[in-house]
Amino acid sequence: DIQMTQSPSSLSAYVGDRVTITCRASQTIRIYLNWYQQKPGKAPNLLIYAASSLHSGVPSRFSGSGSGTDFTLTITSLQPEDFATYYCQQSYSAPLTFGGGTKVEIK
Amino acid sequence: QVQLVESGGGVVRPGRSLRLSCAASGFTFSTSAMHWVRQAPGKGLEWVAVISDDGSNISYQDSVKGRFTISRDNSKNTLYLQMNSLRAEDTALYYCAREYIAMALAATACDFWGQGTLVTVSS
Questions:
Q1: CB contacts < 8 Å between A and B, how many?
Q2: What is the spatial distance between Cα B61 and Cα B95, in angstroms, rounded to a whole number?
């Protein structure tokens, strides 16, 4: 199975900060990497698919990059509604696997 | 609009069975692959299983293989998860999710999720 490692597991940031979350796969997954946002008590929302494609309706301050084994999610100017937990997921091969999550908190 | 509504969760003793359902509406269910994803209380997301649009292709997480069965009834727009030999570690909120396919990239993701149904396995 492909292991997904996210870092950091949590971070504190101010509104307006640039935030970067990384995700590393245990083997190459080419571009098959998705990012989700989850707020407390809610289902996850798809942000980015195929490493860098912004899902419909997602603000342009979110962006993704990477290929192979190393990926990043960047939020260019953190907004109050962005405080949440973010997960990466590989869709390269079954069993699909998620990273452990990154909780973004208000500083 | 797309709606996914899970049901069938509850409290069950270890070793017993439970069947979850996910009623879909607002899209053509029969042309979408579907997933089950779970989340233990206070923990991260764990993918459970996927079924193709016509039910011919299925994959499972290793920890549920042989105990869980994913299925679908396209005439009823409903996805199922039959869970047998339940264990304490199966305790989680179970989400169903629709698979999105980015054809040009041959990439998939889960673009719509239900609100989940809670399964608690406890003696």
A1: 71
A2: 15
- Per-residue confidence (pLDDT) for residue B118, from 0 to 100: 98
Apex A61 CA angle, A55 and A65, nearest 5: 65
Chain A residues closer than 8 Å to B37 by CB: 44
Q: Which residues contact A101 (CB under 8 A, 6 or more apart)?
A: A6, A9, A38, A85, A86, A87, B44, B45
CA-to-CA separations, B70 to A16, A62, B19, B32, B50, in angstroms, rounded: 44, 34, 10, 14, 7
How confident is chain A (107 residues) per 10-residue block, as mean pLDDT?
A: 97 97 98 98 98 97 98 96 97 96 95
Cis peptide before A8 (omega within 30 of 0): yes
Nearest to B36 by CA among B13, B62, B59, B56: B59
CA nearest neighbour of B63 among B36, B41, B99, B95: B36
Looking at chain A from residue 3 to 62, which residues have their Cβ under 8 Å from any Cβ of chain B? 31-32, 34, 36, 38, 42-46, 49-50, 53, 55
